[in-house]
Amino acid sequence: MGLTTVTSTIALGLTILAAPAFAQSVGMQVVDTTGAPVGTVAAIQGENLQIKTDKHEALVPKSSVTLDNGKLLFGMTQAQLDAQIEAAAAASQKAIVAGATVNGSAGTSVGKIDAVEGGNVTITLASGKKIQVPSTGLRGNADGTVTIGYTAEQLEALTAGTPAPATGGTTGATSGK
User: Fold this and answer.
1) Burial class (CB in 10 A: 0-12, 13-18, 19+), 134
2) Is there a single domain that holds both residue 80 and residue 12?
């Protein structure tokens, strides 16, 4: 199975690690309560640590780990974390269906999903224009909506054939008029 990045945050209530220790945590080993490897800290993103397991990468709150003998202690095994990441990804993909409302990165509706075929999703924007994106560029939400990493204005610019303003959004969008 390939490396998958899941943007959901996995919340656990363990001891809070002091903030200065996090500055040095990239590359640190993360272990479970028995000392078995869970993964490695790949990055720090705000109040979250990006942990790379053998299969996936996930964001976990800094508050879900504690420093123990030079390693970061985490309350799940590697198998448990991988299973939770896979379950979250599967649940997210289930929301990506025809008729679902698509919200942009600003949180407002940008359109509705018309079709999901061959790993691609066709979205009809509020203007009536259509755009096709890879399903991996969308995130399904618990409320049945779907989120894309672009604003309505950026999507409109893509469908007009003009470069979209820079964002940390999804790549690979294609337009159709």
Assistant:
1) middle
2) yes
Q: Are residues 63 and 137 in the same domain?
A: no
How far from 74 is each of 14, 31, 36, 77, 88, CA to CA, in Å?
A: 8, 6, 10, 8, 19
Give the single-character DSSP code of 57: E
Q: What is the pLDDT of residue 162?
A: 57
Domain finish residue from 42, 65, 93: 93
Whether residues 79 and 127 share a domain: the answer is no
Q: What is the pLDDT of residue 163?
A: 57
Q: What is the mean pLDDT of the chain?
A: 81
Looking at the structure of the chain, the number of domains it has is 2
Domain interval for residue 131: 101-176
| Token representation of residue 28 | 């640190």
How confident is the model over 115-135, as a mean pLDDT? 94
Q: Which two tokens stand for residue 168?
A: 């940390």
Q: What is the pTM of this model?
A: 0.60
Q: Which residues pair with 45 in a beta bridge?
A: 48
